Request: fold
Amino acid sequence: MNLRPTVALLPLPIAFAAGSIAARTLYARVPLRFRADSGQPLAVVTAWGAHGEAAFAILAATVAAGAAATLVAMHRCARTATGSEGTAILATAALTAAAALTWPFVFSSDAYAYAAYGAMAAAGIDPYAPVAFATHGAFVDAARAQWSGSFPVCVYGPAFVAVATEVVRAGAGNVAATLFGFRALAVAAFLTSIALLDRALADTPPADRYRALCAYGLNPVCLWTAAEGHNDAFLMAAVMAAAAVARRNLPGGAFLMGLGALIKAPAAVLALGAGLHPQLGRARLRALTAAGAGVGVAAGLSLPVLLPALRTVGAHGVYDPQVSVQGLFGPRIGVLLACAAAAWGLVLFERGRAAGAAWLGIALMVALPNGYPWYAPWLLPWCLGAGWGAASRALWAATIFSVARYLPDAAGTLGADAVRAAAAVAALPLAFALAELRLRIPTRKKVSVRS
Reply:
C-alpha cells in the first residue's frame, strides 16, 4: 500500500487542529460581552474590534496553511495517482471538518436563521414573510439577537425549508443542539458530495481525478463553511449526486441537477452551464433540454412561495457591495467585467475549449456584490469543468481569498480604505486569469543584407 498520498494530505487537518487551539486560547481572553455573545449558544465573531481582527487572523492563517498543503499534495501526488485515492481524500476531509467543528466560534449567523425558518415552518408560520414582532420562541428570538432585532426572510427553496424543519424537530427545542445539528448535517452533506464527485469522475484520467478531488474536497474554505453549517453543502450534495447519475444517464442527471434549485437557486445556473459544456458534443441539446426541464419544475414549485420573500428583499434590501470586485471598482464596472468574462467563456465553449467553464465561474464571482466564503462550493464546479489551466487556478485561488469577506464584519471597526484593501486582496487572484488572454505578437525575422 502506497502511504505517500495519505501522508501528504495530513497537514490540512493538522492546520485546522492547530487553528482550533489558537482560537480557544484567544476566546479565553476575549471580554465577556463578546465571548458570551448576548447569551447565545454559538458565538459568532461580529464587531469584536481588535479581538475580531485576531480571530480573523487565526482563520486566515489556517486557511492559508491548508491551501498550501493541498497545493503541495496536488503537485507531488497527482502524477503518480492511480484513481484509488478517493478514500484517503474523503478521510482527510472528515478529519479537517471535525477539527473545524471544535473551534469555539464561527463567523456567520446563518445557522441561526436556518433554525428560525425551520421552527416557523414547524409552527405553521410562513418563513418567506417577515416575522411579526409579536412572534416569539427560542429559535426566532435567537435569530433576532444575531440580526439586531430582525433577521432576513427565507430565500431558499422549499426542499431546504423541509430539511430545516426536520432538524429543528430533532433538536426538541434545544437551540444549541439544533445549531450543532445543522453544522454536523452540513459536514455530512459535503463529505457525501466528495464521494459522489469521486464516482462521477470514475472515467477520467487518475491525475485529473486526483486534482479535482483535492481542489474541491480539500478546499479549506469549503470545509470551514460546511462546519459553519451553510446550506451550500446540501446544494452540492444534490449537484454531485446529479453528476454521478449523468455519468450513466445524461438527461436524467441534467434534470436532477436542475431540480437542485429546490434547495438553492445556484443549482439552476450550474445545471444550465453544465449543459453547455463542449465535452458533451452532440448531446448538448439533450442535456440543456433536460436541465431546463428540471429548472422549470423547481421554479414551478418554488416561485409561488418565494415571490413574497423576493418582494420583501426588493423593497427593503440594500445593495451594498463590499469585499468583492464590485466593492473595489463599483457596481457598473463590476457588471461590465462580469459580462466580458461570461462572453469570453461562451466564446471558448463555442471553440470547443473547456476553459470557458472557468471564465463563466469567474463571471459569476465578479457579479457577486459580496463574495462570501460559503459561495465557494458552488463556484468550484466551474473550475473543475475547465481542467487545471490559468483561469481554473485563478478561480480556485479566489475561493481561498474569499475568506477576506469575514474581516469587516468580524472587526466592525474597519474604515472604508481598509475594506477596499480587503476587496483588493479578495479580487487579486482573478487577475491571474488574464494569463490566458495574453497576446502573442509575431516578431519579424531579421533580414541580413550582404553588400
Observations:
- The longest strand covers residues 43-44.
- Strands lie at 43-44, 105-106.
- Residues 249-317 form one domain.
